[in-house]
C-alpha cells in the first residue's frame, strides 16, 4: 500500500508538468493569404501572439522562449487537451492565432469550416506528410507502440512469461486487468488506436481486437502521457500509446520498454494559422519557425518525436528512417479519427464493465 501511495504522489507530480490553462474570447475573422515568409524569422519587437498548444508544456515553453529571443515577439500560450481545443475553436470560443498539436483530422475539420489560413509553399516535409489543401504543416510524427514496465510485468506474470509483441497478444484474456489505455472520450491517441485497428484489420476482426483490448484494460487514462506515466511508475504493466511519450519516461530513468508493433497506427502533430486571428504576420512567422530545421531538432531532442523533414534523419535510437517504420499504410495522416455509434457503444460498455478491475487474475476470493 505504501508503495502505491508513493507512486501515486510521484505520478501526480509528473502530471503537473503537462498541465496548462484555457483561453476564451471572440477571434477576429479574415482569410487573406500573406506572402510566403523567409527562412529566417523577421524581427517582431512590437509583435504579440496567442498560441493554443496540444503539446507537452516543457516543449512549448522552450520553443516559445527561443522564438521570443529571436524575434522579440511576445507569446501567450495555453496548453489544452486536443478535444478541448477542437471544441473551443469550432464554437468560436478562442482568441488564438495559432493551433499547434492535436491530430491532422482536427486541423482538417477546422479547414473544412474555413477557419484556417492557406499558405503558398511547403518545403522540407516528406510528400506523405503534406496537406494537399495547404492549410496545416506537419511539425512531428507520432506512431503507436506497446509500452511495458518489465519489473511490474515479471512480478505479475512470472519470470518465464513472454512479453507481448502484438495487438493480438494483448487482446488475449491472459492480460485481463493488466493494461492502462488512453481514454477514447478524452484522448486522440485513443481514437488513433481505434481507427488504425479498424482500417488495418477491417470491421469484423478490428472490432474483435478492440473488444479484447478494451476488455483487458484496468483503467482508461485521460491522456496518452498519463497512461505512459502510470506504467513507468509501476501502477500497471502495459500500455499502448505514442512512442514519443513512452520514450520520454524511459529517458527519464523509469523502467519502460517500447515495442513498435506490426501495422501500428501513426499520425502527425500539425501547426496551422487560424484565419480569424488578429496577429497574422506573427502567426505565420511562428508556423514557419516551428517547421525550420533548427526548431525541428530542438523539438526532437525535447519530445523524442520524429521530424517529418526529409533533411533531418530519424533519431539514432530508432535505427530507421521515415520510410522504414513498421506502420500501416492504411492508417495515413488524414484518416486518424474514427468514431461511430457501433464503436462507441462497444467502448462505453467495456469501459463500464471494467470499473474497479485491477490485476484481475491475481485477486483471491474473500473467505
CATH class type of the largest domain? Alpha Beta
- Span from first to last CA? 21 Å
Helix content: 25-40%
Task: Please give the number of β-strands.
Answer: 9
Q: Report the average pLDDT across residues.
A: 75
CATH superfamily of the largest domain: Periplasmic binding protein-like II
Computed CA radius of gyration, to the nearest angstrom: 21 Å
* CATH fold title of the largest domain: D-Maltodextrin-Binding Protein, domain 2
Order of helices and strands: HEHEHEHEHHEHEHEHEEHHH
Task: Tell me what the CATH architecture of the largest domain is.
Answer: 3-Layer(aba) Sandwich
Write down the domain tally.
2
Broad structural category: alpha/beta
> Helical region count?
12
Low-pLDDT parts are 1-38, 319-338, 356-367
Strand proportion, as a percent range, falls in: 5-15%
Largest sheet data:
9 strands, mixed
Q: Rough shape?
A: globular
Question: Would you mind describing this structure in some detail?
Answer:
With 367 residues, the chain is an alpha/beta fold. The protein folds into two domains: 19-140 and 268-316, D-Maltodextrin-Binding Protein, domain 2 (3-Layer(aba) Sandwich), CATH 3.40.190; 143-266 and 327-362, 3-Layer(aba) Sandwich (D-Maltodextrin-Binding Protein, domain 2), CATH 3.40.190. 38% of the residues lie in helices and 15% in strands. Strands 1, 2, 3, 4, 5, 6, 7, 8 and 9 form a nine-stranded mixed sheet that branches. Helix 1 packs antiparallel against helix 8 (224-232), helix 7 (188-216) crosses helix 12 (341-353) and helix 8 (224-232) runs parallel beside helix 9 (243-251). The longest helix is centred in the middle third of the chain and has 29 residues, at 188-216. It is globular. The model is unreliable at 1-38, 319-338 and 356-367 (pLDDT under 50).
Amino acid at each position: 500500500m505504501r508503495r502505491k501511495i508513493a507512486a501515486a504522489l510521484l505520478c501526480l507530480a509528473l502530471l503537473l508538468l503537462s498541465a496548462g490553462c484555457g483561453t476564451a474570447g471572440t477571434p477576429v475573422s479574415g482569410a487573406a493569404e500573406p506572402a510566403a515568409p523567409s527562412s529566417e524569422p523577421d524581427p517582431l519587437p512590437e509583435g504579440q501572439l496567442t498560441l493554443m498548444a496540444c503539446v507537452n508544456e516543457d516543449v512549448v515553453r522552450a520553443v516559445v522562449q527561443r522564438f521570443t529571443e529571436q524575434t522579440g515577439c511576445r507569446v501567450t500560450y495555453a496548453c489544452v487537451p486536443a478535444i478541448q481545443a477542437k471544441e473551443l475553436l469550432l464554437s468560436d470560443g478562442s482568441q488564438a492565432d495559432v493551433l499547434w498539436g492535436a491530430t491532422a483530422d482536427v486541423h482538417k475539420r477546422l479547414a473544412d469550416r474555413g477557419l484556417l489560413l492557406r499558405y503558398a509553399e511547403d518545403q522540407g516535409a516528406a510528400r506523405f506528410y503534406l496537406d494537399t489543401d495547404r492549410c496545416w504543416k506537419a511539425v512531428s510524427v507520432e506512431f503507436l507502440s506497446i509500452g511495458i514496465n518489465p519489473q511490474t510485468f515479471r512480478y505479475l506474470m512470472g519470470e518465464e512469461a513472454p512479453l507481448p509483441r502484438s495487438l493480438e497478444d494483448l487482446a488475449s484474456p491472459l492480460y485481463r486487468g493488466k493494461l492502462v489505455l488512453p481514454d477514447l472520450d478524452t484522448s486522440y491517441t485513443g481514437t488513433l488506436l481505434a481507427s488504425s485497428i479498424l482500417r488495418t484489420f477491417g470491421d469484423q476482426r478490428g472490432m474483435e481486437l478492440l473488444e479484447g483490448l478494451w476488455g483487458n484494460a484496468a483503467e482508461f487514462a485521460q491522456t496518452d502521457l498519463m497512461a505512459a506515466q502510470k506504467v513507468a511508475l509501476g501502477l500497471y504493466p502495459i500500455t499502448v500509446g505514442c512512442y514519443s511519450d513512452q520514450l520520454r519516461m524511459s529517458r527519464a530513468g523509469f523502467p519502460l520498454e517500447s515495442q513498435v508493433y506490426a501495422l501500428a497506427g501513426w499520425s502527425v502533430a500539425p501547426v496551422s494559422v487560424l484565419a480569424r486571428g488578429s496577429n497574422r504576420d506573427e502567426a505565420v512567422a511562428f508556423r514557419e519557425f516551428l517547421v525550420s530545421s533548427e526548431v525541428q531538432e530542438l523539438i526532437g531532442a525535447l519530445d523524442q518525436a520524429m521530424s517529418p523533414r526529409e533533411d533531418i534523419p530519424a533519431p539514432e535510437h530508432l535505427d530507421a528512417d521515415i520510410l522504414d517504420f513498421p506502420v500501416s499504410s492504411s492508417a495515413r495522416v488524414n484518416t486518424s479519427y474514427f468514431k461511430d455509434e457501433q464503436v462507441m457503444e462497444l467502448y462505453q460498455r467495456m469501459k463500464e464493465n471494467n470499473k474497479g478491475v485491477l490485476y484481475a487474475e491475481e485477486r483471491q476470493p474473500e473467505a
